[in-house]
Design brief:
By secondary structure, the protein is mainly β. The chain has one helix at 2-12; strands at residues 43-45, 64-73, 77-86, 90-96, 115-116, 124-129, 133-140, 143-147, 153-159, 164-172, 182-190, 199-201, 216-217, 220-225, 244-248, 260-264, 268-269, 277-283, 287-297, 302-314, 326-327, 340-349, 357-365. β7 and β8 (143-147) form a beta hairpin.
Protein backbone atom coordinates (compact mmCIF):
# COMPACT_ATOMS: atom_id res chain seq x y z
CA UNK A 1 0.00 0.00 0.00
CA UNK A 2 2.82 2.42 0.95
CA UNK A 3 4.68 1.72 -2.32
CA UNK A 4 1.49 2.44 -4.29
CA UNK A 5 1.00 5.74 -2.45
CA UNK A 6 4.62 6.71 -3.11
CA UNK A 7 4.23 5.94 -6.81
CA UNK A 8 1.10 8.09 -7.01
CA UNK A 9 2.86 10.91 -5.16
CA UNK A 10 5.76 10.86 -7.62
CA UNK A 11 3.39 10.98 -10.57
CA UNK A 12 1.59 14.06 -9.30
CA UNK A 13 4.74 16.00 -8.37
CA UNK A 14 5.45 18.87 -10.77
CA UNK A 15 8.04 17.82 -13.37
CA UNK A 16 10.37 20.69 -12.45
CA UNK A 17 10.58 19.57 -8.82
CA UNK A 18 12.12 16.18 -9.72
CA UNK A 19 14.05 16.98 -12.88
CA UNK A 20 17.35 15.27 -13.53
CA UNK A 21 20.26 15.88 -15.84
CA UNK A 22 19.41 15.07 -19.45
CA UNK A 23 20.82 15.01 -22.97
CA UNK A 24 19.36 18.44 -23.72
CA UNK A 25 18.05 21.00 -21.23
CA UNK A 26 18.08 24.00 -23.56
CA UNK A 27 14.28 24.13 -23.75
CA UNK A 28 14.06 24.52 -19.95
CA UNK A 29 17.22 26.32 -18.82
CA UNK A 30 17.52 29.83 -20.24
CA UNK A 31 20.58 31.96 -19.44
CA UNK A 32 18.82 35.21 -18.64
CA UNK A 33 19.33 35.82 -14.91
CA UNK A 34 15.90 34.35 -14.06
CA UNK A 35 16.58 31.31 -11.88
CA UNK A 36 13.00 30.02 -11.77
CA UNK A 37 14.06 27.52 -14.48
CA UNK A 38 15.88 25.34 -11.96
CA UNK A 39 14.26 22.36 -10.26
CA UNK A 40 14.28 21.79 -6.51
CA UNK A 41 16.93 19.07 -6.68
CA UNK A 42 19.22 21.30 -8.73
CA UNK A 43 19.69 23.73 -5.84
CA UNK A 44 22.80 22.05 -4.47
CA UNK A 45 23.46 24.69 -1.80
CA UNK A 46 20.62 26.49 -0.03
CA UNK A 47 19.03 26.84 3.38
CA UNK A 48 17.90 23.19 3.36
CA UNK A 49 21.14 21.54 2.20
CA UNK A 50 23.36 19.43 4.43
CA UNK A 51 25.68 22.41 4.90
CA UNK A 52 23.10 25.22 4.88
CA UNK A 53 23.74 28.52 3.13
CA UNK A 54 22.07 31.11 5.32
CA UNK A 55 20.54 34.23 3.83
CA UNK A 56 22.01 36.53 6.47
CA UNK A 57 25.57 35.32 7.00
CA UNK A 58 27.48 37.89 4.95
CA UNK A 59 30.00 39.93 6.88
CA UNK A 60 29.00 42.88 4.67
CA UNK A 61 25.29 42.70 5.51
CA UNK A 62 22.16 41.25 3.92
CA UNK A 63 22.45 43.53 0.88
CA UNK A 64 25.66 41.73 -0.15
CA UNK A 65 24.98 38.06 0.36
CA UNK A 66 24.77 34.73 -1.51
CA UNK A 67 21.44 32.99 -0.97
CA UNK A 68 21.79 29.70 -2.88
CA UNK A 69 23.53 27.92 -5.77
CA UNK A 70 21.99 25.70 -8.46
CA UNK A 71 23.87 23.34 -10.78
CA UNK A 72 22.71 21.02 -13.54
CA UNK A 73 23.94 19.85 -16.95
CA UNK A 74 23.16 18.26 -20.26
CA UNK A 75 25.36 16.79 -23.00
CA UNK A 76 26.65 20.20 -24.08
CA UNK A 77 26.56 22.57 -21.12
CA UNK A 78 27.22 22.82 -17.41
CA UNK A 79 24.63 25.25 -15.98
CA UNK A 80 25.36 27.28 -12.82
CA UNK A 81 23.17 29.84 -11.06
CA UNK A 82 24.26 31.91 -8.07
CA UNK A 83 21.30 33.70 -6.49
CA UNK A 84 22.40 36.65 -4.39
CA UNK A 85 22.03 40.23 -3.22
CA UNK A 86 24.64 42.56 -4.69
CA UNK A 87 23.64 46.07 -3.75
CA UNK A 88 27.13 47.59 -4.21
CA UNK A 89 29.24 44.53 -5.03
CA UNK A 90 29.40 41.63 -7.46
CA UNK A 91 29.72 37.87 -7.34
CA UNK A 92 32.62 35.63 -8.35
CA UNK A 93 32.52 31.91 -9.06
CA UNK A 94 35.46 29.54 -9.45
CA UNK A 95 35.45 26.10 -11.00
CA UNK A 96 38.19 23.46 -10.80
CA UNK A 97 38.29 20.55 -13.22
CA UNK A 98 42.00 19.73 -13.67
CA UNK A 99 45.62 20.72 -13.14
CA UNK A 100 47.14 24.12 -13.63
CA UNK A 101 44.73 26.39 -11.75
CA UNK A 102 45.48 29.25 -9.37
CA UNK A 103 45.50 29.04 -5.59
CA UNK A 104 44.68 32.70 -5.05
CA UNK A 105 43.59 35.84 -6.84
CA UNK A 106 46.20 38.30 -5.64
CA UNK A 107 47.93 38.26 -9.05
CA UNK A 108 45.04 37.32 -11.35
CA UNK A 109 45.00 40.42 -13.56
CA UNK A 110 41.59 42.06 -13.85
CA UNK A 111 40.20 39.24 -11.69
CA UNK A 112 42.59 40.14 -8.87
CA UNK A 113 41.02 40.10 -5.43
CA UNK A 114 42.44 39.79 -1.93
CA UNK A 115 41.25 36.18 -1.73
CA UNK A 116 43.02 32.87 -1.15
CA UNK A 117 41.23 29.66 -2.13
CA UNK A 118 42.51 26.99 0.27
CA UNK A 119 43.09 23.71 -1.57
CA UNK A 120 41.00 24.75 -4.57
CA UNK A 121 42.97 25.46 -7.76
CA UNK A 122 40.28 26.88 -10.04
CA UNK A 123 40.54 26.67 -13.83
CA UNK A 124 37.55 28.90 -14.65
CA UNK A 125 36.86 32.33 -13.14
CA UNK A 126 33.62 34.26 -13.54
CA UNK A 127 32.97 37.78 -12.27
CA UNK A 128 29.61 39.48 -12.64
CA UNK A 129 27.73 42.53 -11.50
CA UNK A 130 24.57 44.32 -12.46
CA UNK A 131 26.39 47.08 -14.35
CA UNK A 132 29.14 45.38 -16.34
CA UNK A 133 27.68 41.96 -17.08
CA UNK A 134 29.80 38.81 -16.67
CA UNK A 135 33.42 38.11 -17.60
CA UNK A 136 34.79 34.55 -17.79
CA UNK A 137 38.45 33.49 -17.93
CA UNK A 138 40.28 30.18 -18.04
CA UNK A 139 43.63 28.95 -16.76
CA UNK A 140 44.80 25.35 -16.72
CA UNK A 141 47.71 23.14 -17.71
CA UNK A 142 46.83 23.60 -21.39
CA UNK A 143 45.85 27.28 -21.49
CA UNK A 144 47.35 30.55 -20.31
CA UNK A 145 45.18 32.84 -18.21
CA UNK A 146 42.77 34.67 -20.48
CA UNK A 147 39.14 35.23 -21.39
CA UNK A 148 37.24 32.36 -22.96
CA UNK A 149 35.60 32.43 -26.37
CA UNK A 150 31.96 33.49 -26.54
CA UNK A 151 30.91 30.10 -27.89
CA UNK A 152 32.24 28.38 -24.76
CA UNK A 153 30.46 30.48 -22.14
CA UNK A 154 26.96 31.95 -22.13
CA UNK A 155 26.34 34.34 -19.25
CA UNK A 156 23.77 36.65 -17.69
CA UNK A 157 23.50 38.81 -14.58
CA UNK A 158 20.22 40.37 -13.50
CA UNK A 159 19.21 42.24 -10.38
CA UNK A 160 16.37 44.49 -9.31
CA UNK A 161 16.47 47.94 -7.73
CA UNK A 162 16.95 46.41 -4.29
CA UNK A 163 19.97 44.38 -5.43
CA UNK A 164 18.29 40.95 -5.51
CA UNK A 165 19.24 38.88 -8.53
CA UNK A 166 21.50 36.17 -9.87
CA UNK A 167 24.49 35.37 -12.02
CA UNK A 168 23.93 32.56 -14.52
CA UNK A 169 26.52 30.61 -16.49
CA UNK A 170 26.37 27.96 -19.17
CA UNK A 171 29.88 26.56 -19.67
CA UNK A 172 30.70 24.27 -22.57
CA UNK A 173 32.10 20.83 -21.77
CA UNK A 174 34.84 21.72 -24.24
CA UNK A 175 35.85 24.35 -21.69
CA UNK A 176 35.21 22.32 -18.54
CA UNK A 177 37.55 19.41 -19.12
CA UNK A 178 36.41 17.12 -16.31
CA UNK A 179 38.94 14.38 -17.07
CA UNK A 180 38.45 12.64 -13.72
CA UNK A 181 34.67 13.04 -13.81
CA UNK A 182 34.60 15.61 -11.00
CA UNK A 183 34.33 19.40 -10.85
CA UNK A 184 34.55 21.62 -7.79
CA UNK A 185 32.76 24.94 -7.39
CA UNK A 186 32.99 27.91 -5.04
CA UNK A 187 31.33 31.34 -5.12
CA UNK A 188 31.73 34.54 -3.13
CA UNK A 189 30.45 38.07 -2.81
CA UNK A 190 33.30 40.48 -3.48
CA UNK A 191 33.93 44.04 -4.58
CA UNK A 192 36.54 46.01 -6.48
CA UNK A 193 39.91 44.44 -7.41
CA UNK A 194 41.46 45.17 -4.00
CA UNK A 195 38.51 43.67 -2.07
CA UNK A 196 38.31 40.47 -0.06
CA UNK A 197 34.97 38.64 0.35
CA UNK A 198 31.89 39.28 2.42
CA UNK A 199 30.28 35.88 1.95
CA UNK A 200 31.58 32.57 0.64
CA UNK A 201 29.45 29.66 -0.54
CA UNK A 202 30.10 27.10 0.84
CA UNK A 203 30.98 28.98 4.01
CA UNK A 204 34.70 28.99 4.87
CA UNK A 205 35.90 27.27 8.02
CA UNK A 206 37.21 30.58 9.42
CA UNK A 207 35.09 33.66 9.99
CA UNK A 208 35.46 36.17 7.18
CA UNK A 209 36.69 39.63 8.20
CA UNK A 210 34.24 42.51 7.97
CA UNK A 211 36.88 44.89 6.56
CA UNK A 212 36.43 45.00 2.81
CA UNK A 213 40.13 44.99 1.98
CA UNK A 214 41.08 42.27 4.48
CA UNK A 215 42.35 39.02 3.02
CA UNK A 216 39.69 36.31 2.83
CA UNK A 217 40.54 32.59 2.86
CA UNK A 218 37.81 30.47 1.26
CA UNK A 219 38.73 26.86 1.90
CA UNK A 220 35.58 24.76 1.31
CA UNK A 221 34.11 23.79 -2.07
CA UNK A 222 31.17 21.99 -3.65
CA UNK A 223 32.23 18.77 -5.40
CA UNK A 224 30.03 17.40 -8.20
CA UNK A 225 30.44 13.96 -9.74
CA UNK A 226 29.46 14.70 -13.33
CA UNK A 227 30.86 11.59 -15.02
CA UNK A 228 30.76 8.67 -12.57
CA UNK A 229 31.49 5.98 -15.17
CA UNK A 230 34.38 7.99 -16.68
CA UNK A 231 33.18 7.39 -20.22
CA UNK A 232 34.02 10.95 -21.22
CA UNK A 233 30.40 12.12 -21.33
CA UNK A 234 28.45 13.84 -18.54
CA UNK A 235 25.99 11.53 -16.80
CA UNK A 236 22.27 11.89 -17.55
CA UNK A 237 19.34 10.86 -15.40
CA UNK A 238 20.98 11.82 -12.11
CA UNK A 239 19.91 14.32 -9.47
CA UNK A 240 22.53 17.09 -9.04
CA UNK A 241 21.82 17.16 -5.30
CA UNK A 242 22.51 13.45 -5.02
CA UNK A 243 25.98 13.72 -6.55
CA UNK A 244 27.10 16.91 -4.78
CA UNK A 245 28.99 17.11 -1.51
CA UNK A 246 30.91 19.81 0.35
CA UNK A 247 34.62 19.06 0.43
CA UNK A 248 36.47 20.74 3.30
CA UNK A 249 39.78 22.29 2.47
CA UNK A 250 42.75 22.91 4.70
CA UNK A 251 41.70 25.00 7.66
CA UNK A 252 43.25 28.41 7.03
CA UNK A 253 45.81 29.85 9.38
CA UNK A 254 44.46 33.06 10.86
CA UNK A 255 47.11 35.67 10.19
CA UNK A 256 47.63 38.90 12.07
CA UNK A 257 48.93 41.97 10.25
CA UNK A 258 50.74 45.01 11.58
CA UNK A 259 48.89 48.27 12.03
CA UNK A 260 50.37 50.67 9.47
CA UNK A 261 49.82 54.42 9.30
CA UNK A 262 51.09 57.14 6.98
CA UNK A 263 52.90 60.25 8.22
CA UNK A 264 53.62 63.41 6.19
CA UNK A 265 56.20 66.13 6.74
CA UNK A 266 53.72 68.82 5.62
CA UNK A 267 49.96 69.13 5.74
CA UNK A 268 49.87 71.93 3.13
CA UNK A 269 52.29 72.90 0.36
CA UNK A 270 52.58 75.08 -2.74
CA UNK A 271 53.67 73.11 -5.85
CA UNK A 272 54.01 76.32 -7.89
CA UNK A 273 56.81 77.36 -5.51
CA UNK A 274 58.59 74.04 -5.95
CA UNK A 275 57.32 72.57 -2.68
CA UNK A 276 56.44 68.89 -2.35
CA UNK A 277 55.12 66.67 0.40
CA UNK A 278 57.08 63.67 1.64
CA UNK A 279 55.50 60.82 3.57
CA UNK A 280 56.53 57.68 5.42
CA UNK A 281 54.94 54.56 6.85
CA UNK A 282 54.86 53.78 10.56
CA UNK A 283 54.08 50.29 11.89
CA UNK A 284 53.43 48.69 15.26
CA UNK A 285 55.50 45.60 14.33
CA UNK A 286 58.33 44.59 12.02
CA UNK A 287 57.00 43.57 8.60
CA UNK A 288 57.88 43.33 4.92
CA UNK A 289 55.00 44.65 2.81
CA UNK A 290 54.30 45.56 -0.81
CA UNK A 291 52.97 49.11 -0.78
CA UNK A 292 51.04 51.07 -3.43
CA UNK A 293 50.43 54.81 -3.15
CA UNK A 294 47.95 57.03 -5.02
CA UNK A 295 46.50 60.51 -4.67
CA UNK A 296 42.75 61.21 -4.88
CA UNK A 297 40.73 64.38 -5.06
CA UNK A 298 38.18 65.11 -2.37
CA UNK A 299 35.52 63.96 -4.88
CA UNK A 300 37.06 60.47 -4.98
CA UNK A 301 38.66 60.88 -8.42
CA UNK A 302 42.17 59.44 -8.66
CA UNK A 303 44.62 62.07 -9.91
CA UNK A 304 48.00 60.36 -9.54
CA UNK A 305 49.51 56.89 -9.13
CA UNK A 306 52.78 57.36 -7.27
CA UNK A 307 53.90 53.73 -7.29
CA UNK A 308 52.59 50.16 -7.12
CA UNK A 309 53.83 47.12 -5.17
CA UNK A 310 57.03 48.72 -3.87
CA UNK A 311 58.79 46.61 -1.23
CA UNK A 312 58.91 48.22 2.21
CA UNK A 313 60.86 46.60 5.06
CA UNK A 314 59.16 48.25 8.02
CA UNK A 315 60.39 48.23 11.58
CA UNK A 316 58.20 48.81 14.61
CA UNK A 317 57.82 52.55 15.11
CA UNK A 318 58.65 55.39 12.73
CA UNK A 319 60.24 54.58 9.37
CA UNK A 320 62.12 57.04 7.15
CA UNK A 321 60.53 57.87 3.78
CA UNK A 322 61.82 56.03 0.73
CA UNK A 323 62.89 58.00 -2.34
CA UNK A 324 59.52 57.29 -3.99
CA UNK A 325 57.52 58.51 -1.00
CA UNK A 326 56.90 61.99 -2.34
CA UNK A 327 54.19 63.91 -4.20
CA UNK A 328 55.01 67.09 -6.10
CA UNK A 329 51.39 68.22 -6.45
CA UNK A 330 51.03 67.10 -10.07
CA UNK A 331 48.59 64.71 -11.73
CA UNK A 332 49.40 61.74 -13.98
CA UNK A 333 49.74 64.14 -16.95
CA UNK A 334 52.34 66.28 -15.17
CA UNK A 335 50.04 69.25 -14.55
CA UNK A 336 49.91 70.97 -11.18
CA UNK A 337 46.53 70.15 -9.64
CA UNK A 338 44.08 72.90 -8.63
CA UNK A 339 44.24 74.14 -5.07
CA UNK A 340 42.23 72.19 -2.50
CA UNK A 341 42.18 69.12 -0.28
CA UNK A 342 43.66 65.84 -1.59
CA UNK A 343 43.89 62.38 -0.05
CA UNK A 344 47.13 60.42 -0.05
CA UNK A 345 46.08 56.74 -0.03
CA UNK A 346 48.52 53.89 0.70
CA UNK A 347 47.45 50.25 0.30
CA UNK A 348 49.70 47.36 1.31
CA UNK A 349 49.83 43.57 1.36
CA UNK A 350 52.14 40.69 2.25
CA UNK A 351 52.37 39.67 -1.43
CA UNK A 352 52.43 41.46 -4.76
CA UNK A 353 48.94 42.70 -5.54
CA UNK A 354 47.78 41.93 -2.00
CA UNK A 355 45.55 44.33 -0.11
CA UNK A 356 45.83 43.37 3.54
CA UNK A 357 45.40 46.90 4.79
CA UNK A 358 45.32 50.55 3.92
CA UNK A 359 45.88 53.98 5.39
CA UNK A 360 45.36 57.55 4.23
CA UNK A 361 46.01 61.16 5.15
CA UNK A 362 44.74 64.45 3.71
CA UNK A 363 46.97 67.27 2.45
CA UNK A 364 46.16 70.73 1.13
CA UNK A 365 47.52 72.11 -2.14
CA UNK A 366 47.90 75.88 -2.00
CA UNK A 367 47.92 77.90 -5.25
Amino acid sequence: MMRWLLAVALLVLPAASRSTTAADLSSRIHIDGDVSDYAANEWVLDSTSARPERADDSRWGINNDIRRIAVTWDANWLYIAVECNTYDTGVMAWLQYGAGGLGGLEAAGEFRRNIALGDLRPNVFAWGDGAGGVEVARVDAGAAFGRVADDQARTAFARDAAGAGAMELALSWELVLASDGVVQLLAAITGRPEAGAGDGAPDPSATLPATRTARAVLDNALELIVDADLDGSPDTGVSPQAVTTVVPGTTPVVRSFPDVSVRTDLRSFAPDLGEEVRFALDADADARVFASASVYGIDGRRVRVLYQDEVRDLVAGANPPASEDVWDGRDDSGRVVPGGVYVLNVMWGESIGGRDGGTRVSVVVVR
